[in-house]
Amino acid sequence: MYKINENYQKLPGSYLFSTIAKKVAAFTEANPDREIIRLGIGDVTQPLAPAIIEAMHKAVDEMGNAATFRGYAPDLGYDFLRNAIAEHDYKARGCDISADEIFVSDGAKSDSANIQEIFGAENRIAVCDPVYPVYVDSNVMAGRTGMYDREKEIWSNVIYMPCIMENGFVPEFPEETPDMIYLCLPNNPTGTTITRAQLQEWVDYANKAGAVIIYDGAYEAYISEEDVAHSIFECRGARTCAIELKSFSKNAGFTGVRLGYTVVPKELKCGNVSLHQMWARRHGTKFNGAPYIIQRAGEAVYSPEGKAQLKEQVAYYMKNAAAIKNGLQKAGYSVFGGVNAPYIWLKTPGNMTSWEFFDVLLEQAGVVGTPGSGFGPSGEGYFRLTAFGSYENTLAALERIQKQAF
User: Fold this and answer.
1) Rounded distance between C-alpha atoms, residue 199 and residue 373, angstroms
2) Residue 352 and residue 248 share a domain
3) Per residue in 154-208, pLDDT tens?
4) Buried b vs exposed e over 54-69: b needs ≥16 C-beta within 10 Å?
5) What beta strand segments (E) does 93-207 contain?
6) Closest CA to 113 of 251, 232, 216, 9
7) Which own/partner contact pairs does 371-375 have at CB distance under 8 Å and 24+ positions apart?
């Protein structure tokens, strides 16, 4: 008789955003005349930039010609895209990253879940609390997190780094020594971040402790402050302790197109074993390469036209973030984030729980956000709003929220 992976049975409930989708669907079915404004999931709403569309059209035409047709993509990515990434995302910022250390994928979510496969099950992970759920859930599936305490909403073998109002919603070094440290900066869900000097301290800590940092930089395009690093490889010593995950979803609107990459430096080793070689082996075995058309679209992100158009798109979303933040502050809310990230993190009013506030906003205002408790126990009493809606819907949602009496 076959057996299942019992670790999946440990997962509490369904995935956060699946739960939200079900609640919204049920409300919509019961109230078909109510207009719902969605500021919950971090999905973009602006169309792909013209430079990207042009590149995709050209690539499609190439696929229709026998002389230029492409079959399976190189499993680690086409050289034209890896070279563009290395040049614009790293060398331009003074980072020593070569094209053959870049592994192209179908998105950072996949990589953030899959990267743990090259590490032993006995490793202990440290995560910010609140945190993007995929980091913890993927380690649960691998049997690395111990048992779940439903009352405290924590895992017995996970080291939590509370990111709360008292520490500015940024992580502090844990009392216990972790083996794997997940950092998402700028942070999802709080929208906060740390300075380059603070990030250097984390790199020094990891090298001293013999730990590896899994660095999720999905929101780096939204950084507006000069002293915030766009890559962990801006820090000395990061090549011996860090893996970086990047996405085209938020900076270029690829949520429906799917493209990302992971950087694994050749100097990153466990004893004499190269993690670069391990990830290359895993990638080659389990991934058939991102489509040629999509990788050409990714290349266009780095063209002069693409850069200019995407700069405008990022500014559009950050205009939404500023409107939400300023509007909620005027309404008396305690609000955070929205400066270096497209997320607003707010304190729920009147001692409401995160899910109570979710229900009130949905039922009374017709606005969907994300309950902070869905990101971890330290997220209880907080709520995330995204700036990825249209400007008109953002203002309409803000007006609805401001009308609510709590």
Assistant:
1) 26
2) no
3) 999 999 999 999 999 999 999 999 999 999 999 999 999 999 999 999 999 999 9
4) bbbeebeeeeeeeeee
5) 102-105, 125-129, 148-149, 154-155, 158-162, 180-184
6) 216
7) 371/20, 372/130, 372/189, 372/345, 372/348, 373/153, 374/16, 374/19, 374/20, 374/133, 375/16, 375/129, 375/130, 375/131, 375/132, 375/133, 375/189
* 152 CB-near residues (< 8 Å, 6+ apart): 377
Element (H, E) at 278: helix 275-286
Sign, CA dihedral 134-156-178-195, equals: positive
Q: Are residues 80 and 206 in the same domain?
A: yes
CB 327 within 8 A of CB 402: yes
* pTM summary value: 0.96
Is residue 238 located within the same domain as residue 331? no
Tens digits of per-residue pLDDT, 361-392?
Answer: 999 999 999 999 999 999 999 999 999 999 99
String of b and e for 94-105 (b: at least 16 CB within 10 Å)? ebebebebbbbb
Q: What is the dihedral of CA 179, 265, 290, 61, to 10 degrees?
A: 160
Question: What range defines the domain where residue 317 resides?
Answer: 6-47+307-403
Number of independent structural domains in the chain: 2
The last residue of one of the domains, among 264, 287, 304, is 304
- In the block, residue with structure tokens 């009392």: 175
